[in-house]
Design brief:
Blueprint lengths: L4 E6 L7 H12 L5 E8 L1 H10 L11 H7 L1 H13 L2 E8 L2 H11 L4 E6 L12 H9 L4 E5 L4
Parallel strand pairs: 1-2, 1-4, 2-3, 4-5
Helix pairs in contact: 1-4, 5-6
C-alpha cells in the first residue's frame, strides 16, 4: 500500500522521542516517495510562549504558526534527520486543542497515516494511552501509529 502523505504530529513533550519518531517515519515513508507533513500543534499559551522564546518581532513582521513551528527545536532536529534520509517534508504549525487540531490537520492534508508520540504508561495504565494520542487514534480519518520514547 502506497502512503502519499504521512502526518507526524509534534507536541511540546516530543523532544525525548525525536529519534524514534524519525526512525518510524523514515521506515514508513521509505523509498515510496511519500510526503511527510510535520505538524506542530500549539495551544494558544504554548504559541505565545514560543513567540517569546524564539524571539520573533511580531511588531515588525507577520508571524504564522508555520513560521513558529519551522523554528522550533524539535522540528529542526527532525528536518535534519529527514534531509539526511532523503525524505520529502513540509512543516505546518497549528494553534488549537492538540487532539482536535491533529485530526483536523490530518483531514486537511488528506493524510494516509498519522504518527503520534506518547509516553510510557504505568502497569495499570498500559491499556490507556495519553488523552491526546487516544483522541487522535479514535478520531483520525486514517490509520494511526503510536510512537513512544526509547525505553531505558
Amino acid at each position: 500500500m502506497s502512503l502519499d502523505t504521512i502526518l507526524v504530529a509534534i507536541g511540546p513533550s516530543d523532544a525525548d522521542r525525536i529519534d524514534r519518531l524519525a526512525e518510524e517515519t523514515i521506515d514508513v515513508a521509505g523509498p515510496a516517495g511519500s510526503t511527510v507533513v510535520l505538524g506542530h500543534v500549539f495551544t494558544k499559551d504554548e504559541y505565545e510562549d514560543a513567540l517569546d522564546k524564539l524571539e520573533f518581532d511580531t511588531t515588525a513582521e507577520e508571524v504564522s504558526p508555520n513560521d513558529v513551528a519551522a523554528r522550533h527545536s524539535t522540528i529542526r532536529e527532525l528536518t535534519k534527520l529527514f534531509d539526511a534520509a532523503g525524505v520529502d517534508y513540509e512543516v505546518r504549525g497549528v494553534v488549537g486543542d492538540h487532539g482536535k487540531a491533529i485530526v483536523d490537520l490530518a483531514e486537511e492534508v488528506d493524510a494516509d497515516r498519522v504518527l503520534v508520540g506518547g509516553r510510557k504508561r504505568s502497569p495499570t495504565g498500559k491499556a490507556v494511552f495519553g488523552s491526546v494520542a487516544q483522541e487522535v487514534m479514535l478520531s483520525a480519518p486514517c490509520p494511526v501509529t503510536f510512537v513512544r520514547a526509547d525505553t531505558k
